[in-house]
Design a protein that fits this description.
The complex is a heterodimer. By secondary structure, chain A is an alpha+beta fold. Chain A is built from 4 helices and 13 strands. Classes of the chains: A alpha+beta, B mainly beta. Chains A and B meet through strand 3 and strand 4 of A and strand 15 and strand 19 of B.
């Protein structure tokens, strides 16, 4: 674990694996350091945002004193099925990167169980990790200024669905009509941490 | 109730607090780009600190007050008229029923805050009345013809003030280096250079023009896994042109952050307009 400064109201905690991130996030969420306002778990980091008057050095010491054990099993949550039309603009690029055919990319995406590791980026966006590494691809060289709502993408070890139109740099492989964020629901997000996802061909 | 006649470049409903504590739902903080100015405008009309007001970009806003009210402006000094008569910014102004309130274009700064005694009483979403333009949360961006509800007057009286001072702006933003300054060949370029604010600017942030921030050789081809970012983060995409994040920044970002503007100075950053010059001064925490 290593901590890096993030302005005068933040602390970025670096970890070696996603499992360590999830363990630390769970530990911090259960008993937040004094002054904590927001916790942002991500692939290899947890951002701890604190109130303007909080004692950052004290928060850093508190975080560093924690050594939570990674949880062996993740994703005992509900299973959500998402129907996807696999016609994304980057499907061929993903095939080239992975050495698979486009059909094999679709088979790999629909053939594994994905789990929401954490949410972020924008309301309702869940970072999904798969059960194998066949579809690990880099982000696009340049990001798009407009990615349509429902676009299904891949980046790094993650897959995700854009809940609404936004900028984005993920490799797009398809699209879905599944509504992932709805303020009429409680909670409004479908893809909560721990939720499992199966994609199928629409 | 006020009826909107004109909105200028962009007018949104904002509050000071936004939506903290929901980042793990992907919900950013949002709220006023210059929280200090909105807080001042609220104080001038005796509102509670969490009352919502209007954030008006480069003036040009006009509205009819259906009932009498008290308003105050703070932030960018836009000329204010009530039924054609000039009124002072930075002090409470009584608006008679049926009167028209108009804002001209501010000579400096970008965002003027209009507080109405009682607050703009739109329905809160996830605990805030702020419009997050990127996340699509809160009320829609204000448009001509909108009728905005005003809440009941608070019990606190309108305070007696002579004139609250306009905000400082010397174009210097204090910045804490990191978290990813080590990704750059010479991160001090950020501190040594005069940067120009481009017109690629909105509530998410603004892009700066200046020397290219070149990556260190060891990180030239490395992809940063997405990580949490905060307001004030100076993020550098592969082009080497930095972007400073404001109120509606995404919760996570995929490019290295070379430094983070200290929280208080993000309000100053929220008043920068295209063509303004910015310098960064390093501070430690």
């Amino acid at each position: 674990m290593r901590t890096r400064p993030c302005g005068d109201t933040g602390l970025l905690v670096e970890l070696d694996s996603l499992d360590e991130v999830l363990a630390l996030h769970a530990d911090l969420a259960a008993d937040p350091p004094s002054g904590t306002v927001d916790l942002v778990p991500a692939a290899r980091t947890v951002l701890v945002r604190v109130a303007a008057a909080a004692d950052l050095a004290g928060v850093a010491a508190d975080v560093r004193a924690r050594a939570p054990e990674p949880v062996g099993e993740r994703g005992a949550g509900e299973v959500v099925e998402i129907a996807v039309t696999y016609d994304g603009d980057d499907l061929d690029e993903v095939a080239r990167h992975t050495g698979l055919t486009a059909d094999e990319v679709v088979a790999a995406h629909t053939g594994q169980t994905w789990t929401v590791a954490f949410a972020g980026f924008t309301p309702g966006f869940g970072y999904l990790v798969g059960s194998d590494d066949r579809l690990h691809v880099p982000r696009r060289e340049s990001s798009r200024t407009r990615v349509p709502a429902g676009a299904v993408g891949l980046a790094g070890e993650f897959s995700g669905v854009y809940p609404r139109e936004s900028p984005g740099g993920w490799q797009l492989i398809g699209r879905t009509d599944h509504v992932l964020w709805d303020l009429e629901r409680d909670p409004p997000a479908v893809l909560l941490p721990g939720t499992r996802v199966r994609f199928r061909v629409a | 109730m006020i009826t909107v006649l004109a909105t200028g470049v962009q007018t949104t409903v904002q509050d000071v607090r936004g939506r903290p504590g929901r980042a793990d739902l992907g919900v950013g903080v949002s709220g006023a780009a210059d929280r200090r100015a909105l807080a001042l405008a609220n104080r001038l009309v005796g509102n509670a600190p969490d009352a919502a007001g209007l954030e008006i970009t480069l003036g040009g806003f006009a509205a009819t007050f259906l009932t009498s009210g008290v308003v105050a402006l703070a932030g960018a000094p836009a000329p204010l008229t009530v039924d054609g008569r000039a009124a002072d910014p930075y002090r409470p102004v009584v608006v008679p029923a049926g009167a028209q309130v108009r804002l001209g274009t501010p000579a400096t700064g970008l965002r003027t805050y209009l507080a109405v005694r009682g607050g703009i009483a739109v329905t809160p979403v996830l605990g805030s009345r702020a419009t997050d333009v990127v996340a699509g949360l809160g009320p829609a961006v204000v448009t001509e013809g909108d009728e905005l509800p005003v809440g009941p007057a608070p019990t606190a009286p309108v305070p007696v003030v002579d004139l609250a001072p306009p905000p400082r702006s010397d174009g210097v933003l204090r910045v804490v280096p990191g978290p990813r300054h080590d990704w750059f060949a010479d991160p001090a370029v950020l501190l040594r250079s005069a940067w120009s604010v481009t017109d690629d600017l909105n509530r998410v942030g603004f892009r700066l023009e200046g020397p290219e921030l070149v990556r260190a050789d060891a990180f030239a081809e490395v992809e940063l896994p997405s990580e949490g970012v905060i307001r004030g983060s100076v993020q550098v995409p592969p082009s080497g042109r930095p972007t400073v994040f404001l109120a509606d920044h995404p919760v996570t970002g995929g490019y290295p952050v070379i430094g983070v503007v200290v929280d208080a100075d993000t309000d100053v950053a929220g008043q920068l307009r295209p063509g303004d010059t910015v310098r960064f001064r390093a501070v430690s925490v």
